[in-house]
Specification:
By secondary structure, the chain is mainly beta. Helix content is 4%, strand content 46%. The chain has one domain: Jelly Rolls, CATH 2.60.120.10. It contains one helix and eight strands; from the N terminus they run αββββββββ. Strands 1, 2, 3, 4, 5, 6, 7 and 8 form an eight-stranded mixed β-sheet that branches. Strand 4 and strand 5 form a beta hairpin. The radius of gyration is 13 Å and the shape is globular. The two termini are 15 Å apart.
């Protein structure tokens, strides 16, 4: 029952595209991740994902449109929807996802993080 300071947690890591677990509730992980550059196209067949922008902004690309998400905004990507996050500059994101969610969903690549650090 300890509080979590997001700025302190983000200060603990510098790598991009490597989510860190900072909390767990009701079968969900609360994760922090820093994004910069382009991710890969992927989808999650069984899980929705919530992306909350703590600092900065990024674009979520879909096959038919692009959505800009700015600081203090969030976006929910519904299960089964192919998407690709793109961040021109570093952005800090808080994710809410089921504990079973793999960061690259149905696509395995060198960006896949099967085991996540807890910080």
């Amino acid at each position: 029952m300890d509080k979590v300071n997001l700025e302190d947690k983000f200060a603990l890591f510098s790598e991009h595209w490597s989510p860190k677990i900072v909390g767990e509730l009701n079968g969900q992980h609360v994760k922090l991740v820093k994004l910069k550059g382009e991710f890969i196209w992927h989808k999650h067949d069984e899980e929705d994902e919530l992306f909350f922008v703590v600092k900065g902004s990024f674009k979520m690309e879909y096959r038919d449109k692009t959505v800009q998400i700015n600081e203090n905004e969030f976006l929910i990507v519904p299960r089964g929807v192919e998407h690709k996050p793109v961040a021109d500059e570093e952005v800090w994101i808080m994710l809410f996802e089921p504990t079973t969610t793999l960061n690259t969903g149905n696509t395995k690549s060198d960006m896949t993080k099967a085991v996540l650090d807890k910080i």
